[in-house]
Amino acid sequence: MEEIDFEEVDFLEEKSIQIREDLLKMIFNSGMGHTGASLSNTDILTTLYYSILNIKPEAPQWPQRDRFVLSKGHGVESYYCILADLDFFPREELDTFCQYQTRLIGHPSNKVPGVEINTGALGHGLAISVGMAQGLKMDKKEAQVFTLMGDGEQAEGSIWEAAMAGSNFNLDNLTGIIDRNRLQITGNTEKVMKLEPLKDKWESFGWEVIEVDGHDHKELLPVFNSLPLKKGKPSLIIANTVKGKGVSFIENRAEWHHKVPAAEELKSALAELSRKRGGNSRD
User: Fold this and answer.
1) Using the 8-state DSSP alphabet, how is residue 97 labeled?
2) CATH code for 6-276?
3) Please, which pLDDT band fits residue 186 given cuts at 50, 70 and 90?
């Protein structure tokens, strides 16, 4: 894997803090949202959108663009904040999140520039991504397709049908990512529907699999930059994460799956994030 650019890592770490601050304010202002899931996936999305994806905010439908599908649609808050930060749409529009007649509804909507497809009903994103990847191959386009799934979502049978198809068609332009935070709305994934051995299952379906720390940009960057993991096979990244990452009183708390911070909680969360600015280590 290529040498790590620590300036890029520092930028991504600072950007991730900003996005967490933005999404917390957005959820607080709207009075609704999926706090834990969005804090969990922030580092994955910042790495993709600021360092990996070949996209043009000024031309969201550019034919040569890489495609991203947020299969775990309930993690949309970080997604919207990133798209706004990259000027896909005006940043001021974040204030309309989940309000009457807004484009920024509680799950991804393709009325929003930069969003490829409506998602939210779990289990569909990977199948859609398989179709996108196969279409790009047929059109002889070099673009890549990425889809971010939740770990609770792995209980959906459609995930495994899509996984089988992805390997059957040798879609090495397709990368699946699992936000492996081990918590879903009803509790621990291993108690709700046991997933382990998750890596072995995906490998048995013909995917090349790697596990990473989903909050460490030093691990995420070189893996994304080395795709495909193996020529002729789709890639699967199991990103081990912490639900609610970045705010200590939210981390690893299942009740924060769909909980909105109160005013004092928001103040405390923003203060904690602020203290992290410039204090990230490279150990």
Assistant:
1) T
2) 3.40.50.970
3) confident
